[in-house]
Amino acid sequence: MKEASRSLNFIEHIIEDDLKTGYGKDQLRFRFPPEPNGYLHVGHASSICLNFGLGLRYNAPVNLRFDDTNPTKEEQEYVDAIKRDVSWLGFEWDQECYASDYFQQLHDWAVTLIENGKAYVDSQGSEAMAQQKGTPTEPGTNSPFRDRSVSENLELFEKMKNGEFPEGAHVLRAKIDMAHPNMLMRDPVMYRILHKAHHRTGTDWCIYPMYDWTHGESDYIEQISHSLCTLEFLPHRELYDWFLDQVVSADTLRPKQREFARRNLSHTVVSKRKLLQLVNEGHVNGWDDPRMPTISGLRRRGCTPEAIRNFADTIGIAKRENVVDVSVLDFHMREHLNKVAPRVMAVLDPVKLVITNYPEGKEEWLEAENNPEDPEAGSRTIPFSRELYIEREDFREEANRKFFRLKLGGEVRLKNAYIIKAESVVKDEKGEIQEIHCTYDDLSRSGSGTEESQRKVKGTLHWVSADHAFQAEVRVYDRLFTDATPDQHKDKGFLDFINPDSLQVISAWMEPGLKEAQPGDRFQFQRMGYFCVDPDSTPGNLVFNRTVTLRDTWAKIEQKEE
Ligand code: ATP
Ligand code: MG
Fold this sequence. Notes:
The chain has 562 residues and is α/β, with parallel strands linked by helices. It is 27% helix and 23% strand.
């Protein structure tokens, strides 16, 4: 993958400094550590691009580590989805690791901590422990079980492990300092009892390690040089280091935790918990619903991995949290699709157009370029005949001079075909236009080389031949939320801002060559936007998702409203 030439970000500066002060280049190693409790979203893409981007820049291995220490929320389905998404984004991990593979090692280290008087079994309920925690300005108080003997602690911990106690009966805590200014250092819990089967270790364990105890030690086991996480873990760094102090031995690499800001995207939510709620409550049709900000939803909608990577690179990484406008992602979708998506014609809201001076029964196959941005894309032929469909909104009986589409008495060019002139309309009893009757200039065919073919008219319309076109379902998506920051309101929840019109299903007319399109294929429907074939398609019944419009229509609406 090509690496963008740009100035170093602050994480890269940290690494450069470390390379100058003792780290060897071959010691660099990174990891992306998702918890398999949901599907990856566009926020994760930032972390993926950061970690794997560093791997590419420094030619260093990057592990994919599943942080799977909470069996109540984690599932194999999520593991599989995460692997699929990281691969689809175009990254290759070095080792596939699981925190659960370290359960035995973590347990053995915990025993060492007990033996060294650095951990103890607390037999109070969680409420009592919370009361003793103190506040940021007041010290906490010691648990009455804090001074248990080493042998009693070892015996109790062994029994916890063997399943002799119910959930909540005991926890293992690190013995640090109940008066520590950092609340997280006030004897944090290392293990809790959970009688739950784990998706990988089954019922082997009924004590599960907590995040803080697991993460740094896993980094150490894998010899990760730089463990990059989001800012909310900044106060955890002290504890990360304390736990490492208990196990790191000489001549091994000591991992470093460094933090960067979480990325939020406007008009959506990037939290697996909230996304799970959207799925479970049926607000969307699954994790890969094209309206979801998940990687799988974006893929299904027609977004390319390049667009997501370019998006992540452009917004870069930051030290402070902010909200990135979703239009930035849309921009990158358009920019990449413009280069790679073949152009085709499809009419989404049809009205019939009859060319009265075109011979009945005649058909012509006209040459059409597949992608003007890509000379390699070649061309195809499309059928033209006497009866066509054009977009209803492309015609007006009367209009001012600024309307460059078709009006009575006016001329337009039909894309790749002829110049036509609108002569009259046929209406039904309700006054709705049924047919537009036109004449064409038979010398004006695009590419025919005649003087007439070079004649400039203001508007160019897309069209399909009525007899040759076929109908397909088109799912037109809009933003899932009407508010820019739906989960940032004090008085309302994010579900209060769901856009009731985020999905519109229509039946559109397609040029015949599209019959061969396969799920995942992406196209530009000329003048209408980018579309992608949905996996719901069946051979006689294609379904297209609208990926993104050609222009930012919301920008206009928001301007008008100002
Ligand atoms: P969520 O709240 O959505 O579950 P998480 O941080 O709990 O997010 P993890 O699976 O633990 O999800 O995340 C894996 C990695 O991705 C972590 O290093 C985490 O910091 C990072 N990450 C998660 N969300 C974002 C985001 N919005 N922006 C940048 N990085 C993120
Ligand atoms: Mg999490």
